[in-house]
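Hello,

Our lab assistant flagged a job as stuck in the queue for most of the afternoon. It eventually completed. Since we weren't sure the result was trustworthy after the delay, we are filing this so someone can double-check. Below is the sequence as submitted and the structure that was eventually returned. Let us know if re-running is recommended.
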Amino acid sequence: MAPSPANLDCVPDLQKERASCSFDKEEVTILLDGSREKTEFRRKLQDHFLSDPEFEDPVRPEYLSHSDRYANELRKACYMVRKFSEDEKVQNLIGEMEGIRMLMGSGLGAALTKDGNPLALHFVMFLPAIMGHGTPEQQALWMGRGWMGEIIGTYAQTELGHGTFLRGLETTATYDPATEEFVLHSPTITSLKWWPGGLGKTANYAVIMAQLYTKGTCHGPHPFIVQLRDEETHASLPGVTVGEIGPRLGMNTNDNGFLQFDNYRIPRDWMLMKHSQVLEDGTYIKPTSDKLAYGTMVFVRVAICFDTCRQLQRAVTIATRYSAVRHQSELVPGEPEPQIIDYQTQQYKVIPQIATVFGLHFSAQAVWNTYNDVTADVQQGDLEQLPELHALACGLKALSSTDCTEGIDICRLACGGHGYLNSSNLPRIYTTCTAAITYEGENTVLWLQVARYLMKSYHEARRGNKVLHSVSYLSAQPTSAQEVSRLSNQKLVDAMQHTVSFLVNQAAKRLQQYCDEGQKYELAWNRCAVQLVKCAKVHTLYFVCDQYVRNVEERDLSLGVRNIFRQLCRLYLVYHILKNSGDFLMSGALSTKIIGQLEEEQCELLAVLRPNAVNLVDAFDIDDHILDSTLGSWDGKVYDRLYKEALKSPLNQQDVGKAYHRYLRPLMKSNL
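-- returned structure --
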């Protein structure tokens, strides 16, 4: 393992940047981790795993064949689990859930298994699905075997023809009371399970979502534990056809797979029956509420928010450090080439992404805390807050995956041509993050789910009924445009509240107009869909901005950290208001004069934050092994690393390659 940053020399440009830090970087690091103890734990865990030579790649994954890349990452993933289970030092460091979370996430896990972990779905979906949907007896039967690695599972919901639309799934599970078995079947080509990670070659079990049929009645999708492969030979079982779907844009060692059933039978008690049951005679007992399944979805979606935020942390760390090291052109003719971070256009690319990291982190933490509170309420039979929690998780998952993916690509572009190199690691970070836009709920569908909650809450508010906290603004009438010379952060949040209230009101009126004209509600909804998505986006942005301001003002922070957070928060608010200025003008929340002032202020904020840009990304405390970038290392030795990495190419191992003699020389000597 490379020495720690404290023991490394860095290039003069980065020495200069780090010498002028105006805040306590360690305080920011601890804030992001959650506590000093968690920071120390994370660092110890990283040191222990990153120093292990078994996780090294003798050859960069990009130079391996598809099958060899999978085998290499599977080797490391299996070693990771064994080390976690058998290494006494690891056991002394960590508990089960916390360790697995870090090893499978986008931080340490991304450094150990670079192009995807074949075992990830086992830990982040298969086991949580059993916990969320299984009875205590089923959990006792399956969880122990899963934790011990005796069985490896995945979660198979998405089909070739249906993804986010759960009710449209075609895989069937028909109960046969004569044998007390379910018969699983894939009746059409579009009913093949398609996309589950680990399904192709790794998993021998899966939690399958299938349409439940008993006594001739369909009761909708339900989860079942299904064995796919023999536990000794790993051969697929009769009635099961399973394989990998082929190369993807990224995460190619997750072995995403397909699955087809041909009247395949499983025992009755392999249906996960925590919320609903099928008795021996086929009698169906429905759940007390159809919202009980929200818990697992919320858990996964909030985890995605944290994960995509960490991906953006990596990308903006690379781009910011590179921007401080790279010198380009002449800002003033005849003077030395400046650092490119001194160009305002470069600051506009990079610094708002730093601000985004903190806004999304604070918001994801708020939803996570709400999830824990609501879970406790649900256990007491109180389901009142579940719909709001579901809407928040949907919106924040969609916002974070979209904004982080866009931000990562901006960071890649900010690194010019070098950002296009795989060795920058920006292409891999981008392809990993962009996948989150479509998995665990395609974002457009999630936006429309948020919109449904907004419309329902709007009508409740208009009837004078109580609405929950995140939509309480719908009970008040929008205020007039602001005309003061400078608006506080809270006033800008109020302007967002005004704007989203206006947009929801306009969408509701338009929807009602179409219904009054005789259109079916569903068709009227579709005619308003673009406007409804906008409502959901601005509502979620308002939530993030509100959480940003609350955290900056209400947390116990040192003066230096509070000041830098206020500047970042201000930039985030201004940046997004200007990106959506048409909505603020149309709603009357802000005037053209204020918008013009905010444009000037944005430039000022970039200049104010620029001296602390490198220090802010340093505070993310991302090890060089996790960055895995020639452009973003702590020491800033970009050009040395680029050249050394280029020399590793297989094409450079021979001065004259075989392809020259086979193809190029015959052409060049053919006297055409």
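-- support follow-up --
The delay was a queue issue, not a problem with the job. The result is valid. The radius of gyration is 27 Å. The domain at 451-466+491-618 is CATH 1.20.140.10 (Butyryl-CoA Dehydrogenase, subunit A; domain 3).
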